[in-house]
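Supplementary Methods S3. Input chains for the assembly prediction are listed below.
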Amino acid sequence: ELKVEQNPLFLSMQEGKNYTIYCNYSTTSDRLYWYRQDPGKSLESLFVLLSNGAVKQEGRLMASLDTKARLSTLHITAAVHDLSATYFCAVDDSGGGADGLTFGKGTHLIIQP
Amino acid sequence: DAGVIQSPRHEVTEMGQEVTLRCKPISGHNSLFWYRQTMMRGLELLIYFNNNVPIDDSGMPEDRFSAKMPNASFSTLKIQPSEPRDSAVYFCASILRGTYGYTFGSGTRLTVV
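Predicted structure tokens for the full assembly:
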């Protein structure tokens, strides 16, 4: 059974600080997704990482993938309040078949002024 | 494209009643997924369809749950009879197989009292 573990599950940080969310998974998949969810809202796709060593950046967020370590990270640089949300990583283990995503529990991020 | 469309957005029903949730995938997408989100269990894949055919329903919690996809543009998730523990947010997602972009609907928040 595929397991996806995120840590931390809860993070409170100050504006301007840097931090990293970690996502470990138990398969050899090379498809790793990061989503953002605001309270009461749907899942917004942030990044899709498709190969070992992949790195993607959007604004203050940067995601990376190490398939050998089965680890993805989501790095937040100089956090701002608008980034407060719950962040999920998810793995597609279908080898290109799109058989659905297995999600981590999510990291609830609060950024305080 | 209007994205994945789910209805209703909110549903409040009494225990024992039948509940039907609806989903219209993105036109051209050939795989459709039903997820359930709760605080305790996070995001769980309930069932998915490829080309309107159910492929894996191992995530469906009980026989009270059933899903259909009569055509490429419509799917339903039915709970009969509903119970308070079915209260959750139910998301539908779709994708074109061979691509990487899972798109989620806005979700249906179900409350069973």
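The mean pLDDT of chain A is 93. DSSP finds no helices and eleven strands in chain A.
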